[in-house]
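The methods section describes the discrete structure representation at length, but only in general terms. What matters is that the chain and its backbone geometry are given together, residue for residue. Nothing conveys this as quickly as seeing an actual entry. For illustration, here is how one protein appears when written out as sequence plus structure tokens:
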Amino acid sequence: MINNRLTALLVALAVVAVACSAGGSAGGSVATTSTADLTTASSSNGTPGTTTNIRQIETVDCDSAPEQVVIVCEAYELIQTHYVDQIDDATLASAAILGLEALDGTSSSDPLTCAVPTDEFNASCEVAASTADDSAEAAEAVVMGLATHALDPNSTYFDAESLALLEEEQEGQIEGIGALVSPEDQTIEGDNKQCTVVSDTCRIVIVATIDGAPAKAAGLQRDDAIVGVDGTSVKGWTIDEVTSQVRGPAGTDVALTIDREGETLEITITRAAVIIPVIDSERLGSVGYIQLRVFSANADEQFKDALINLLAEGIDELVVDLRNNPGGLLDTAIEITSIFLPDGDVVVTQGPDEERPYSVTGASIVPSGMKVTFVVNKGSASASEVVSAVLQERGLAIVVGESTFGKNTVQQRFNLSNGGALKLTIARWLTPGGHDFGGVGVTPDIEMTLDPGIETQALIEAVVAAS
């Protein structure tokens, strides 16, 4: 992904849409067996009291890790090989412990197998003995801990169920409420408020709703915070856990507890099949208007077709609306930029060991000298920022609206052997001129706050008058 702290109930598309198999050895200690004490709240005869069970723990290195725990080794090796920054083993091991401590706890005394990629991970095995029901649960908690507590907020672990939801989104249709959300910590100063786990200060905030979707019909509004799902507080949940609980089969209900400017609201929404819209276009006099909602696999073709039709109608000015566009595929961003940009690079990515430029494709069709205006807001992220930033930098477009999201990282998804996947930030992007908008966003040439419900004609008139 060229994305996100910005996470969507609507969409979470990978900018670098590659799913690679993960596996192999990360090294480690020889397999050993130890025991751990488990204290329970009842005695052996059933009366209240305290008793201690002994749980056998087998620690295995990554050369001998069995199927139920090998994902720990897969994740460790992927992080060491592909993650944008170097993370030391002590930090990773501490994150693994935090992942295990998030489990509900266990009274099981069944033997436990624990994968230790390096010696620093040995301490996590003792924690697993008192928190995990079995070896597979412990391994998954470790991987979740690595992604949540050691890496940036745009890296994440998807279990098999969450991965299936993501792949459904990428097909362009979801079943849910149709809302775009962002996890934001209100105590963080500045524009970059991203956070990973819901707390008293980290909240899941509505960024936008899809026209015609249940969320909009139910009255959800921008800046509403989701604080509960089906009567359960979401405090302590990750953004993906919130997403998976809100999503569900069409026709079923989900009850959301919403905080709106200090007022608590209970809103029940009936889920539906939501088509993720890509393109809207129309002409107002000599001005052409194209709204691009997501950089999906065929969005560049749809955008080009819409533009060709508008040019054939004789427009001499173009307004491109990227408000609430969370990004998408890097290839699509390059193709759409190339429609405007006749030469040069679109973006430069910086990874652990290399800097890589991505050049235009030579498909420019926008007439030289045509006035082009891009409309953005804080929901414009990732690929949206790539396109608007480079065209602004080259002097080919005026950017109007609010400062954008500030998502300057590239993610890639790697499949794991348990059916889940690890999404890792593998690079940061810069404009060809070297500008880094991470955490700050693209600053508009003309600042303008637009009502989210503004009609298209009023939007065009306001933008044209301002620019």
